[in-house]
Write a structure and sequence with these properties.
Length: about 70
């Protein structure tokens, strides 16, 4: 996971790539939780927050792009 500052510095294309990676990792963690292989609920919660941050930054980037065009 990247820090919020690192996410802010990414361009929208790289933000989308990071979002895809985070979603895939979250799915892996959820599967492990369902199979009771791991007790990674805190990591799952971290990824939920991380995905939310990325989506917020993408929304802001889209609004900025729309307002400048």
């Amino acid at each position: 996971m990247l820090s919020l500052q690192e996410l802010i510095n990414l361009d929208p294309k790289n933000l989308r790539e990071e979002l895809t990676k985070a979603k895939k990792e979250k799915i892996k963690i959820e599967m492990a939780l369902k199979m009771k292989q791991d007790k990674k609920t805190h990591i799952n919660d971290q990824y939920k927050h991380y995905i939310g941050q990325i989506m917020t930054l993408l929304t802001l980037a889209n609004r900025t792009k729309e307002s400048t065009s």
